[in-house]
Protein 1
Amino acid sequence: MRKQRLLEQLAAAERRCADVQERARREAAESARLRDAIEALPHAVVVCDAGGSIVLRNRRSLDLEGGRHAAALVERAVEEVVAAGGGVRPVTQTLELRGPPPRTLEVMGTPLGRADRASGTVVLVDDVSELRRLEAVRRDFVANVSHELRTPVGAMGLLAETLADERDPDVMRRLATRITAEAERAGRLIDGLLDLSRIEAAGSQGEAAVALASVIEAAVERVGNLAEGLGVVLVAEPLAVDAMVAGDEEQLISALVNLLENAVKYSDTQSAVEVRTAAPSPGWADIVVRDRGIGIPAKDLERIFERFYRVDRARSRETGGTGLGLSIVRHVATNHGGDVLVESQEGIGSTFTLRLPTIDLVRHA
Ligand code: ADP
């Protein structure tokens, strides 16, 4: 009888022991999984207990880029955030590291557990430099667009006011013509912005095999009227390379149209603009547009691909320029894994090269 009870007690103890072991195994697995999850996060993570001592941290929090000085600053910010939050409220501190490269880090402390029974703080260090840069680019862009649009819209307003008080039919006609020109300018700006955003959004999607020959043919045709109107001779040389590139034909045509329009606009009457192809190295093809126009000062060459950048605002305005053409060309080149290069000399002329990776015809046949 007694032996029976002892055996039962023993079996119960064994079961409890197995339960405890199972629970410990599950807890160990869960803790390993949590640790792996913290390691997998793209942020530096530091976990502190209720007293503020570090109990867990991932590898990213130990090897922060920027050397010892940056690491010490981050370490101090983590301590400050934990102390300021006191394990009960979230605290964020922004840290500007001078670099190089300069970086902006956000150190965010969040209390763990319930507000009345805090068990510690988890601190996340997030590198927000790229985000901040993009925010600044967007702010600049909006400011630039508003400024660029205000000019023609303001001019239209003034011209219309003058027109309202005018009785002389000749002057009225002249004012109306100028209003139309300003409206066209605003329209070109909007079209350019729409093109740019479409090309930016499209990226390198819509990949098809495109023959350079057909891109050149279409672009030359579209610029034909402008060239004729300005008395500039457009010469398409026989193809040196009849390559295919992977991409979007409309984008490529629009890039070449922009280069050709510039070459024509910034040339004098009777000068020639040439477009030709070349093979700079295996797997690459160039479309080269050469003019003998006004050229670009060396100091501006770096900046002409920026949105709204114009070397000579007065001349560009005269020619109806928006400063968006070359940024469209650069985007198209990048979307196709290529580049756009420029060589220019004031008073001599400019050569723009659209360099693109070619594709194997057999693969895409
Ligand atoms: P825009 O609409 O003003 O022509 P782009 O972005 O196409 O704008 O070009 C930027 C600036 O670069 C132009 O304003 C012009 O000053 C200069 N530029 C571009 N192409 C040429 C060229 N072929 N010859 C001389 N200057 C050029």
Protein 2
Amino acid sequence: MNIGIDKIGFAAPDFVLDLADLALARNIDPNKYKIGLLQSEMAVAPVTQDIVSLGAQAAAAILTEEDKQTIDMVIVGTESSVDQSKAAAVSIHGLLGIQPFARSIEMKEACYGATAGLSLAKSHIAQFPDSKVLVIASDIAKYGLESGGEPTQGAGAVAMLVTANPRIMVLNNDNVCQTRDIYDFWRPNYDKYPRVDGRFSTIQYTDCLTTTFDYYQKKTGQSLEDFAAMCLHIPFSKQGLKGLQAIAKNEETLNRLTERFQEAIVYNKVVGNIYTGSIFLSLLSLLENSRALEAGDQILFYSYGSGAVCEIFSGSLVEGYQKQLDQNRLESLNQRTKISMEEYEQIFFQEINLDETGTSVDLPEDPKPFALIQVDKHKRIYRK
Ligand code: HMG
């Protein structure tokens, strides 16, 4: 049975910071971000937009009423949870009005969580071919003011509908994983922002890729030459490019895949790291910005989550996949509100003030269809 991605949607907050402004404010040459990291803008989420509202927005953009009646599992991959117990998937299930007899869960392993969710969705459809699974990757990447990771922050969510006979991409059965118990990026419960061993994390990203890709080649007999494009986890675009360069031994293959890679980072460059969603945002960018792909093409994926777990897998494009996409997405991203450094520092780092009953005071108004409108006695209330 063919199982895979039938629909894919994306949501980002309305605010954007130009990284040239960040560089100037931090006394850094803007080319370090533009050329050194290959990033140009960062999506900035206000306090009223979190992984729940962004996830709901990404999913609402692709789901029909019929989908909502058929979905029986909602999986949210995230590492920027709003609750240690209640899954964001439960809130999103409620906001979207999905039929009640569904399983809703959250999955965590740094930037890898949603890839695990995709595998679980695939197994579920193999068992129940008539059902549909909603997989959402939603994260807000915040490293803190003047931190090393500051230029790689971002916010956004990707939603995917996983079904039998999908209309975008069939997931192949060639997945290989690797687990390494390391501390390259982590966030203890008592910390607001992640702790990062920046340089070590970049080395681990690439070493996990090269060793897992060796294993993948041995296990499947496939090589890079078999693929039309490669999508990688994109903490910042240069990291993905270096990953591709680390495994492409043949010059012609490297040149061809680098052309596709440039198409696959169009959105990531102006959104920033969205952790679990980054690799799927890259897929969306590739599909919506490449004119070189065609049905039947094989796409290779490298998912990496610090800590660390990674996975290499592939998918095959389906005839007519273009019809499921949005060709005006870049235009919409370009219409986001550009904010100044002062606004960025205020908006992105604003905290919710609670009174003695745990109810929010002075939460800003947010007109978006999905937004946090109040915290009421410690319960987060969203606009439906
Ligand atoms: P840094 O020390 O600020 O930067 O840290 P750098 O000195 O390494 O420079 C970066 C690049 O800019 C270098 O290029 C410089 O040469 C270049 P490279 O040599 O690497 O090709 N550069 C310039 N280029 C042009 N003009 C200039 C200029 N100056 C310098 N004037 C670092 C960078 C990535 C470590 C930092 O941003 C950081 O800590 N980021 C967060 C961690 C991260 O993203 N790690 C990536 C791998 S781990 C991962 O992907 C998982 C993650 O997503 C989390 C999860 O799984 O949940 C992070």
